[in-house]
Here is the input.
Amino acid sequence: MSGEKVLLFHFTEESQLKAVRTILFLMQIPERIVRKEEYARPIKELLEEAGENQTLKANPMMRELDGQMIVFAGISGDKLDSLLSLLRSNPACGSIPYKAVLTEMNQSWSAYALFEELKREHEAMNKQRK
Here is the structure.
């Protein structure tokens, strides 16, 4: 895996997905929409080109995430800051609370594991604000 890429999980509203994809296109950042059938695979595998062409059978045991998640890979600090600012300032993008940057630690996690960790962190931050 090399270069910049963004993984998009559980974007069900077409207008929101279009707004996010437009920003990524304008910033010249490739994106990939991840299907729930792929959620058990390691995040690192989802970023590899070969993973996009795999045919996966529908598995009724694969559940959808409880919310949307974005994973940023290989995007530098200033560019990531600009991207996040654009996503926040565009009302069509809506609120996307679960965002992560690919790290050595989380690259082997499944989407489910990463989502649960982000959810715990999000809940902890909201408790601190109260």
Q: What stands out?
A: The first strand starts at residue 5 and ends at 9.
